[in-house]
Design goal:
The chain is mostly helical. It has three domains: 93 residues, Helix Hairpins, CATH 1.10.287; 29 residues; 120 residues, Helix Hairpins, CATH 1.10.287.1080. It contains twelve helices and no strands. Helix 1 packs across helix 4, helix 9 packs antiparallel against helix 10 and helix 11 packs across helix 12. The protein is globular and about 70 Å long. 10% of the residues are buried.
C-alpha cells in the first residue's frame, strides 16, 4: 500500500447554498481519503466492512435525538452522512454505483410516492399520506420479481420491537386492523390470559411462545396510539435504571438481605420522588 502523506484539501468553489457547499466539501474530503495516497484505514474499507458501522452510528444518532442534545445530534448525523458518502465512493471505485445514483434513486422514489405533493392526488391527514405511500409501494412490488406481500420490506435484523412496529404499520395499512384501539387492547388482554394459563405447566417453549405473543400484541397496540414500542421500551428502561439506582442508594446498595415488602416500599418511594421521564 502506498504510504500516505499530507496534502492540503482542494476546497470546492462555494456555490452560495450552504447545504450544497457542505455536501460538496464532504464529498471532496471522502474522495481524498480514498485516493491512493489517502488514509490507509479508509483505503482498506469495503462495502461489507462499512455496513455494520451504519447500524452503530444510527443508534448513536437516535440516542442523541432522544436526549435532546443538539450538538451531539449534529455530530452523529454527520458521522452517518459521512458513512453513506464513503460507502458510495467505495462502490464507485469498484464500478458498481455512485452517490449520484443513490440521490437520483431516492429522488425519483420520493416524487413517485408523494402524488399528493407532486401530483393531482389529495390527502387529508398524515395517516392517509402514510397509507397512500404503502399502497404505492405494494403496487411497485407487485410489478417486480420480488416479495409482493403487504408486510414485505422490513429487515429481519431490526430490533424485535422496532420490527414489530413496522410490521404492524404495514399490516394495518393493508386493512388488517381493528375498528378501534379497544379491539387491539382486548387482543393484548387475551394474550396475557393465554400466557397466564401456561405458567402452571412451566413448559419453556410454550411460555416463550405466549410471552412473544404478548409482546407482539403490545407492539400492535402501540400503532393504534401512535406509540413506537421500541422507543417506549427504551424510555421505560431509562426510568427503571434511574429508579433502581436511586433505590440502591437509598438502601445503601445492599438489596440481597432486604424483604420483598422493604424493596417494594423503597421502589414506591423512589417512583414518587423521580419525575416520570427520569
Amino acid at each position: 500500500m502506498t504510504e500516505s502523506r499530507p496534502r492540503p484539501l482542494e476546497e470546492p468553489e462555494p456555490t452560495g447554498e450552504p447545504r450544497v457547499d457542505g455536501l460538496r466539501r464532504l464529498i471532496a474530503i471522502v474522495d481524498r481519503l480514498r485516493d491512493p495516497d489517502g488514509c490507509p484505514w479508509d483505503l482498506e474499507q469495503t462495502l461489507e466492512s462499512i455496513a455494520p458501522h451504519h447500524v452503530e452510528e444510527a443508534h448513536e444518532l437516535l440516542e442523541a435525538i432522544e436526549a435532546g442534545d443538539d450538538p451531539h445530534t449534529v455530530e452523529e448525523a454527520g458521522d452517518l452522512l459521512m458513512g453513506i458518502v464513503l460507502l458510495a465512493r467505495v462502490a464507485e471505485q469498484q464500478g458498481r454505483w455512485n452517490l449520484a445514483d443513490v440521490a437520483a434513486g431516492v429522488c425519483e422514489k420520493l416524487v413517485r410516492r408523494h402524488p399528493h405533493v407532486f401530483g393531482e392526488q389529495r390527502v387529508d391527514s398524515s395517516r392517509a399520506a402514510f397509507d397512500n405511500w404503502e399502497r404505492i409501494k405494494r403496487a411497485e412490488r407487485a410489478e417486480g420479481p420480488g416479495d409482493a406481500s403487504a408486510v414485505a420490506g422490513v429487515p429481519a435484523s431490526l430490533p424485535a420491537l422496532h420490527r414489530a412496529h413496522r410490521l404492524a404499520g404495514k399490516a394495518i395499512s393493508a386493512g388488517f386492523r381493528w375498528s378501534d384501539d379497544g379491539g387491539a387492547l382486548a387482543k393484548l388482554r387475551e394474550e396475557v390470559e393465554e400466557l397466564a394459563a401456561e405458567i402452571p405447566a412451566r413448559d419453556p417453549a410454550r411460555l416463550e411462545a405466549e410471552l412473544g405473543d404478548v409482546l407482539l400484541a403490545g407492539a400492535f397496540l402501540g400503532s393504534y396510539f401512535g406509540v413506537d414500542p421500541e422507543r417506549a421500551t427504551r424510555k421505560a428502561l431509562r426510568r427503571f435504571e434511574a429508579r433502581f439506582r436511586a433505590m440502591e442508594q437509598d438502601l445503601g446498595g445492599d438489596l440481597g438481605e432486604r424483604s420483598v415488602d422493604e424493596l417494594t416500599a423503597a421502589w414506591r418511594r423512589v417512583k414518587e420522588r423521580l419525575a416520570p421521564e427520569e
